[in-house]
Design a protein that fits this description.
It is a single chain. The protein has 487 residues and is mostly beta strands. The chain has four helices and 26 strands. The protein has helices spanning 22-29, 283-287, 330-333, 464-475; strands at 2-5, 7-8, 19-20, 53-55, 77-78, 85-104, 109-117, 124-129, 135-154, 161-171, 241-245, 248-252, 269-273, 301-305, 307-309, 312-314, 318-324, 344-348, 362-366, 385-391, 395-396, 410-411, 424-425, 428-435, 444-446, 455-459.
Length: 487
């Protein structure tokens, strides 16, 4: 369940203060405001109130994470202006958790997850949701000591901001004492998260304004410093791979990465996977959509310039998207991280003027042994298909979900490793498309131009837990998995 109560909003970001509409709040929570605090039940107090709390960043010293658990609507936490961000509370003991209430300021998260942990380095996603300005109540049924809101995409140009982050349920024991249950100590600096009073609390990231490279910003790594690997089943094919078969969905002159919010501004694109993709697509909207992919759980969107045979558009009949752990050393593969939700980037060059190094795609003939593989169209014998394959970069800078050129936050490996500027290894996405055409290549063109302008766009909308499972069970242990993510 997710309910949102509207609020009266005073214009402005930093100075904005909203007043709870008592009648609407009573309809949802059956309570009214008492001394500025927002109870979730008549006499129920949140387990999170006054507990130790940390966050990925703070906009200023007076907007520290402790303000989100102090029970006051006159104070708030606000992050820096970047994606992703998180805030995490230590309940002091493993607890039965039934509900999370988020009291969003104007700057809310359009996409986020709720995660729990017992403190051993493993996080479990229990809710994936889209934020809405106001009071948002999320029913959950889980247990854990640490509860984290992980915001993957901001709804505004500001950070993400909460008046209150409330966790409800029942403690299963006596909690470890809070550093100061009624008056949390301020952060030592505007960007340094408040430390935990508990010695078993996960350690914060080395830099609260620079999320850890997993894209999930977990501050509690495995003791070895190496991500956990899934088991290797007997007889498994030792290739780091899982796949998604994502048939063609629709054509539009839209590009939500290059021209977001501008329908018709792009050359014609052929879309695969998510059936809702258009110029207005965001991570939040994709999560609400449907998919042609096998597995259907993959709600990501993939698109390329449309191929024409003369003036007739031709769509591929083979559409495979491989996720691979190749191209880097084994020790790099073992530390591969899942893409963060909302990561988007482009491979290839739509503006290429020749078959140079910016032309990443290759063209060949299916069932002809890749003979004549070229950066431009090739002539395929009758009975074969024109095939293109394109490798996307697999090294991420660990910070940005996008960049001005939609490429510079990603990098290809250098010397079989990720460069220091882009230290985070993610799966290599390989796009393989097979078109039911053959013969004279002079008949063919792309909506972007010649064959060497072939490029691909990727907008990640895999459910967080599912993608992390596939990276853990297929990529890191070097196991070949199918569309179901199993060997």
């Amino acid at each position: 369940m997710s309910q949102t109560v509207p609020r009266a909003v005073v214009p402005g970001h930093s100075a904005a203060r909203r007043v709870v509409l008592a009648g609407a709040l009573a309809a949802v929570l059956g309570a009214s405001l008492v001394n500025g605090a927002v109870p979730a039940g008549a006499a129920e107090a949140p387990l999170s109130q006054g507990r130790p709390v940390t966050a990925s960043s703070s906009e200023r010293a007076d907007l520290a994470p402790s303000a989100a658990v102090d029970g006051k609507e006159s104070t708030r936490w606000s992050s820096r202006f970047a994606d992703p961000q998180w805030i995490q509370v230590d309940l002091g003991v493993t607890s039965t958790i039934s509900k999370v209430v988020l009291n969003w300021e104007n700057a809310y998260a359009s996409a986020f997850t709720i995660r729990v942990s017992d403190g051993g380095g493993q996080w479990k996603t229990v809710r994936t949701a889209q934020g809405e300005e106001g009071l948002q109540e999320l029913d959950v049924s889980t247990t854990g000591r640490y509860v984290r809101l992980h915001a993957t995409e901001r709804a505004t140009r500001w950070g993400v901001s909460l008046w209150e982050f409330e966790v409800y349920g029942k403690r299963n024991g006596r909690p470890a004492p809070s550093a100061s249950p009624t008056k949390p100590a301020p952060s030592a600096s505007p960007t340094k998260p408040q430390p935990s009073a508990s010695p078993t609390k996960p350690q914060p990231s080395a830099s609260p304004t620079k999320p850890q490279p997993s894209g999930t910003t977990d501050p509690d790594p495995e003791p070895s410093g190496t991500p956990s690997k899934g088991p290797v089943p007997p007889g498994a094919v030792r290739v780091a791979e899982f796949v998604a078969e994502c048939p063609f969905t629709h054509r539009l002159p839209d590009d939500p990465i290059v021209f977001p919010g501008l329908p018709g501004a792009s050359h014609m694109h052929s879309f695969f996977g998510n059936t809702t993709t258009d110029a207005a697509s965001t991570a939040a909207s994709l999560l609400k959509g449907d998919s042609t992919c096998s597995p259907r759980v993959d709600l990501s969107s993939y698109w390329v310039p449309t191929l024409y045979d003369g003036d007739k558009p031709v769509e591929p009949t083979g559409t495979t998207f491989y996720y691979l752990g190749e191209g880097v050393r084994d020790d790099v593969v073992a530390k591969t991280r899942a893409f963060p939700l909302g990561l988007r980037y482009i491979a290839g060059n739509a503006k290429a003027t020749g078959a140079d190094n910016t032309s990443r795609a290759r063209w060949s003939c299916l069932h002809a042994g890749h003979v004549g593989a070229s950066k431009n169209f090739v002539e395929c014998p009758s009975g074969t298909k024109l095939e293109t394959y394109l490798d996307f970069p697999q090294c991420w800078n660990g910070e940005d979900l996008d960049s001005a050129d939609h490429k510079s936050h990603m990098s290809y490996p250098v010397g079989n490793a990720c460069p220091s500027t882009h230290p985070v290894a993610v799966p290599k996405l390989r796009m393989v498309l097979r078109y039911p055409v053959s013969g004279d290549p002079s008949r063919f063109r792309l909506s972007s131009g010649p064959g060497y302008t072939m490029h691909g766009d990727f907008f990640n909308a895999w459910p967080v837990a599912e993608l992390e499972r596939r990276v853990r069970d297929c990529i890191r242990p070097v196991v070949k998995c199918g569309p179901d993510g199993k060997p």
